[in-house]
Design a protein that fits this description.
- The complex is a heterodimer of chains A (about 120) and B (about 120).
- Chain A is about 0% helix and about 50% strand.
- In chain A, strands 2, 4, 5, 6, 9, 10 and 11 form a 7-stranded mixed β-sheet that branches. A 4-stranded antiparallel β-sheet of chain A has the order 1-3-8-7, with no helix packed on it.
- Chain A contains no helices and 11 strands.
- In chain B, strands 2, 4, 5, 6, 9, 10 and 11 form a 7-stranded mixed β-sheet that branches. In chain B, strands 1-3-8-7 form a 4-stranded antiparallel β-sheet, with no helix packed on it.
- The chains are: A mainly beta (about 120), B mainly beta (about 120).
- At the A-B interface, strand 5 and strand 10 of A face strand 4, strand 5, strand 9 and strand 10 of B.
């Protein structure tokens, strides 16, 4: 059974960047897309983008275009999400999630999810 | 107008049923979408519950009890998560999700209180 383990909490200054990792264990990594979803304190879920590791192709939500980069390292079964030009509104828990179904076209469920990484942006 | 609209809160009694709605924006036909549902408890990541498009295109998440089920109300242009035989452990936030033009959209979530 695949598990996703994310890197630890981060505290960043406004204007800086953060890179969060998501390591898969116990299952096939490259054959499934990975999505990133964030959740601001007390707020709902917000999809940021996804990557298909076996193809190295990523696409991003319009809101984050130009500010987010999602990558994957097949050799270590790890996906990464880097967010730049951080502002206070980016304070949130960031989750990675594996898409089920193995259909790269999308329209898949998200399971499992990583445990989440709290990113705090504060001066 | 948001793509997916969920009521912010809902209360129901133990043993009763709860119907959580996810209304699609006008112009987006619920009939063409798979609606995904997630449950989230405080301090934990969301957990996948089920997917529903039609009675011939639906899926229950692994280990999810059958008292969680999906349906649609075409007249309301909405997806529905029905939870029957409510238990105290069902108290959580529930989110619907669709894939819209190759992008993922979440509803704002419904906080279900069981009291």
């Amino acid at each position: 059974q695949v598990q996703l383990v994310q890197s630890g909490a981060e505290v960043k200054k406004p204007g800086s960047s953060v890179k969060v990792s998501c390591k898969a264990s116990g299952g096939t990594f490259s054959s499934y897309a990975i999505s990133w979803v964030r959740q601001a304190p007390g707020q709902g879920l917000e999809w940021m983008g996804r990557i298909i590791p076996i193809l190295g192709i990523a696409n991003y939500a319009q809101k984050f275009q130009g500010r987010v980069t999602i990558t994957a390292d097949k050799s270590t079964s790890t996906a990464y999400m880097e967010l730049s030009s951080l502002r206070s509104e980016d304070t949130a828990v960031y989750y990675c999630a594996r898409e089920g179904g193995g259909d790269f076209r999308g329209d898949n469920w998200f399971d499992p999810w990583g445990q989440g990484t709290l990113v705090t942006v504060s001066s | 107008q948001a793509v997916l609209t969920q009521p912010s809160s809902l209360s129901a009694s133990p043993g009763a049923s709860a119907s959580l709605t996810c209304t699609l924006r006008s112009g987006i036909n619920v009939g063409t979408y798979r609606i995904y549902w997630y449950q989230q408890k405080p301090g934990s990541p969301p957990q996948y519950l089920l997917r529903y498009k039609s009675d011939s295109d639906k899926q229950q998440g692994s280990g999810v009890p059958s008292r969680f089920s999906g349906s649609k109300d075409a007249s309301a242009n909405a997806g529905i998560l029905l939870i029957s035989g409510l238990q105290s452990e069902d108290e959580a936030d529930y989110y619907c999700m669709i894939w819209h033009s190759s992008f993922v959209v979440f509803g704002g979530g419904t906080k279900l209180t069981v009291l």
